Amino acid sequence: MYLIDASRPENFTTDPADVREMMIQLWYPIETVDEGTRAEYMDYPTFQWLKGRSPIPLVTIP
After folding, report:
1. CA nearest to 21, candidates 8, 35, 5, 39
2. Is residue 40 within 8 Å of residue 62, measured between CB atoms?
3. In the structure, how many helices (H) and strands (E) does the chain have?
4. Is 52 helix (H, G, I), strand (E, B) or coil?
5. Which of 3, 7, 8, 51 lies in disulfide reach of 20, CB 3.0 to 4.6 Å?
């Protein structure tokens, strides 16, 4: 999904005309399966690397 909130200014750019824009991806299981293993969303070293470089708090990453 591509969301635009024209009522809120974008704080992370220098252009005062910018508004909030966000891309969202959703994943969910479509059926229950007994075989296979679950994959991590992101491994811990990658999370630590990204956390140190993101201007946005990463509190929502599982």
Report:
1. 5
2. no
3. 1, 2
4. coil
5. 8
pLDDT in tens, 4-59: 999 999 998 999 999 999 998 877 777 777 887 777 878 889 888 888 887 766 66
Residue 42: inside a domain: no
Q: What is the pLDDT of residue 59?
A: 65
Domain enclosing residue 6, as ranges: 1-28
Count of structural domains, the chain: 1
pTM comes to 0.41
- Tell me the torsion sign for CA atoms 38, 44, 48, 49: negative
Question: Residue holding tokens 């299981």?
Answer: 29
Q: Is residue 61 part of a domain?
A: no
Q: What is the pLDDT of residue 21?
A: 93
Here the tokens at position 48 are 């630590």
